[in-house]
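user: Please supply your own:

assistant:
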Amino acid sequence: MFASFSTALSALNAHVTAVDVVGNNLANLNTPGYKTSTVSFRDLVTQSLGAGLGETQVGFGTGRPFTTRQFTQGAIQSSTGLLDAAIQGDGFFILRDERGGTLYTRAGNFKVDGQGYLTTLTGERVQGWMEGPDGTVNPTGAITDIVVPVGTLQTPIATTNFSLDLNLNAAATVGTLDATFSTPMEVVDSLGATHVLTITFTKTAAGEWQYEVTIPSADLASPPDPPVPLATGTITFDSDGKLLTPDPSSPTVDINITGLADGASDMSLKWSLYHPNGAPRLTQFAQPSAVSANSQDGSTSASLIRVGLADGGKIVAQYSNGLQRIVGQVALASIRNSDTLIAAGNNNFQASAKTAMPAIGVPGTGGRGIILGGSLEASTVDIAREFTNLIVYQRGYQANSRVLTTADEMSQETINLKR
């Protein structure tokens, strides 16, 4: 009979713990990346009464319950934060705390601190790969703190290649206005200044056009008098309007610009007449002469406008000239027994002695989930299920308190027998 006291007390303690777990789940109903904890009860060893053959077994109650973190996928919600990110699938963001320890989280509401580091709201630094000296991000090396460029000025890139996709009017008559067509092409020098080249096509015969490339005299320190074209030549088309010469064996026209007035380096340009697959960029059909597309690989100097975290975990910097550049890559860790992680507070987890070695890599590889920019993963707490559990644990506590009361009354009756 007296064992029922300890049995009931163990149940009361277990149900208090269970209610604490439910309370913590409900408290984190709106915590991004929070994972619900569940409670698992377990019985204690039983004692055999009588001859010890197991005909009558009485347990000693319930032990301290186990709590298990359920790492199920939470709902993905759109957010307005440029640096917000959510993981769809398995995986964790990797963090470093101020002591250099490694933490893991599913909460992707990041920010930039005063030193330019990408951090969580509580200051842990997000890990990944940064842009190297060659201007590319190599995700095969060791992970490091991600530093977001703040207030940086982009160095200009001089143009080395440009192209024009255009049609020349096959119906144009030699010597008329339709037989001459000019189009501008803007290029960038080593100082970031722009220069407008003019490319003029003049029809000289059926299927034959002459071209010349010129630059304004004001752009040259010592312009020749009279002006001299930067490049001249002849292009021909076959009877189907396809570019015949220059042929694909000579796919570019070299254009050299020397003695720029602003002191920039001399420019060596290549005008590409063919696509990489060998298709010509110039055609001659019976349609008005017109440019359909143009491109060049230079860029002017520009200031940084904003930095955002894009899909795939890429850190993208956008500059005032419209250029976007990938300056970093967020890493993910895959942990095959994630339920052994220990909650460290602030939406973070740390590895325990039972945790398997994390596999670190690029999102979307090796079983790791994908990263969605401009999103956050919602808490996995189900309010209806938690309220149900709360009622069940409350009833369990009440029932075991009744056991304790009954055992107390029986002990009083036993004491009263001697009177």
About this structure: The chain is about 15% helix and 35% strand. The longest strand covers residues 194-205.
